[in-house]
Amino acid sequence: MLSAQPEHHLVVSDEKVNERVIENLGEYITRFQIEFQPPNTPWQQRDLYDDFSIKLSGHRYLDNGAVIGNVLHQFRPRAGGFDANLCIYYPASVPEELLEQHRQQLVVEFTNWTYCESMHSGQHTLPTRPKRPLCEPSC
């Protein structure tokens, strides 16, 4: 998890497989938790794709309990790999600079994770460019 993205400083899972994370969000080094649960916000429900069978969703919050965003990553297997639709929802007040930085961060980390997995599995392939744009802020 850490080596896939230079802006990851800590990523650990608890006994429920929720994550504690320290990473750069824009210019800020931020500590937060991700509590994974079924998609239950209106924007997560709106963005569900039936043809993506694997879903990873949850809420991102600070130590004081303040929600700083939501997650909805969806995947579908296909011949030779998979397709991914990656969404992080931030409050509408978040500056575009932070959103763009995090879009780039998602591309780097998922590309690296996919590449490393392909090396271990012997497929040695790089992922292709996303077909759908990364999600815009909705909350």
How would you describe this structure to a colleague?
With 139 residues, the chain is α+β, with helices and mostly antiparallel strands. The chain has one domain (8-121). It has two helices and six strands, in the order E-E-E-H-E-E-E-H. The protein has helices spanning 42-46, 96-121, and strands spanning 8-13, 19-25, 28-36, 54-61, 67-78, 81-89. A hairpin with a 5-residue loop joins strand 1 and strand 2. The longest helix is centred in the last third of the chain and has 26 residues, at 96-121. The chain starts with 7 loop residues before the first strand and ends in an 18-residue tail after the last helix. 17% of the residues are buried. Residues 131-139 have low confidence and may be disordered.
Keywords:
single chain; 37% strand; 6-stranded antiparallel β-sheet; disordered C terminus; 139 residues; globular; alpha+beta
